[in-house]
Structure formats: structure tokens, C-alpha cells
Write a structure and sequence with these properties.
alpha/beta, 9-stranded parallel sheet, 6-stranded antiparallel barrel, 11 helices, elongated
Amino acid sequence: MIHRCWAEIDLAALRHNAAVARRRAGEGVELLAVIKANGYGHGLAAVAKALTNDAQLFGVANLEEAIETRVVAAKPVLILGPALPSERKEIVERQFIPSVSSFEEARQFNEVGAVAINFKIDTGMGRMGTRETEALVQLQQMAALKKISLHSISTHLPSGDEDVVFTKEQLARFHALVRQIRQTIPGSYKIHASPSAGILGYDTGAFDIVRAGLMLYGASPATQFQNDLRPALALKSRVVLRRDLPTGSSISYGRTFITRHPTRVATLSIGYADGYPRAVSNREAVVLIHGRRCAVLGRITMDLMMVDVTDVAGVEIGDEAALIGKQGDEEITAREVAERASTIAWEIFSGIGSRVTRVYL
């Protein structure tokens, strides 16, 4: 079948990147593969299947994703986000691992049934979790709950790829708190804090679990580790129209681009509804056609976009264009697209739309 717009997913690259995470984590540390947001746009079910032998557990954002994961992978599933009160019963019945931020939240789960929880401690993220100054007291109160067991204690790094000084100080505080907790509250619960930036850039030896997300998909939060990883996704489209426009022709909405010379324009069958960000418009974004970098012209539209193929010989309708990925000796990474859009690779991946066909290699 000829696809108009598709993403090629390299499953071997996913497994390679998981092996990098395991090596960096060290012997005996469990790998939690983060597959939320449809496997960062790569396809949740396919990613879970591909990593079943590599990951000890999977991390998702919510109950719906947990259910989808359980269908394809018989591994523990940790729900990283807070649960709605109406979701607690099913979480308990299906024996997912919910993340809770307080004794009160744990108490409400206790009223529903027996469940193992991930207790979240806020050491600087400010998104969820008990404040670290209150964590020990909250955990001591939880110890009296008959139906609650402690699967793990975790925190999150808000600046692992940006602020090394803060992150090292944050990890030192968390390690000290964990030592205090272990001295006070016995049990076989596990400790985790490191997302991809932590796995690649910091010592994870004191943790029992690492949470690999972005790095699984072949993008490093920090450029110095990129060569260790293999990109797992290529985003592609096709030339659906080719036109020769004279000097002074306007292109796309708002007439933000006017040709300065006779220009051969290729229209591609992909737009912002497919996840290629409109924010790259008029910001020197490029695509690859015949292994050449071709400038994006004017604004990205919902279903189509235009590129300059004046200097590329032999471009025909139906030719392949790579928006992320390799052609010949050239490559466009998700990081490059993200920088043009003033965003991050996480958003580029997770924004790839449902009408983009996933093709698994």
C-alpha cells in the first residue's frame, strides 16, 4: 500500500536503546519503560510488545493507557499520574500500581481494596507528590493502612538536562530522605527517581528502578549522549503536487512567503493536523527529498505543506519526503524540528497524529 503520510518505527532501535538504559543503570536495577502518550507517538501496543523482554515494568499516564498495556504485555504497570476517584476501583481490581501523593489519597484507595502503591515525593517538580518535609510522617501514617502495601517511593527531576547543580543537590536530598525512611519504615519497597536525563547524566547506583522514556525512542535529553542511541522513528510524506511559480508569488496563509525568483514548489501531504508543527513556519525548517535539504515555504497548513525543490533534479509526484529521519547522507532529527518550533522532542513525538500510519520495521 502507498501511504500519503506515515511513520516508520524501528523496533530493533527501541530494543537497542533499552539495552543502553539497562547498561547505564547497572546490574540489578529494574527498567521501567515509559510508554505513555501512545508510546511517545510510536504506538503504545507495539512498543510494549517490542520491549516485553527488556523492561521489568511499564509506566503510563492513566488508567486507559494501563488497560491498553495489559492487553499486550503481562508485566506490572505503574500509573505515573494521579487517579480520579471514579478510577480507583478498577485500578485496584486490575492490580495496577497507582501513584499517590498523600496519606489521604492512600486512605481512599484503602477503602476500595488491597493495592500496592507508588508513593510520590515532591523534591522540586511541583507537579504531584508529598512535600519532602512531610514525607516521613505521611508514610508512617500509611503503614497503619491494612490494604495498602508500598511498591515504591519515587521523585522526579525537573531539570536533569538543564541544571546540573540543582539536580545533584536534589538527588543528595532525596538519598538522605530515603535513608531516613528505610531506617524508620521496613519493607522491600523500591526507590526510583531517574528519567532518561538521570539515567544518562547521573549516578543511578542507589536506585532500584530507572524510568526510561525519551531515550527509548532514540533521542537524548542531552546532546553529548546522542551517539549512544538509535533514533526509532522516521516521519515521512509524499509529494502530491509540483508547480512552477514565477517571481512574486505568495505561498500559504497570510502570504508570509513571497518568491524572489522562479521557484519549483512541491506540495507534501502532511500538515499540522498530522503533528508536523505549524510553529516551524518561516523558521528555516527543511525536509529531505532525494537526499537533499529542501526549505519549507510559508506557513504549515492543516493537511499540506510546501517546500522548495528548485535545485533538486527529477522530483516527481509520489516521491518520498522525510520530515524526520535519514535520506542518503543527510538526517533531520526530532531535536532539529523541535528547535525550529521552539519546543522539545517530547512534544514532537507525542504530537504525531492518529491519521499518520505507523509502519513497524
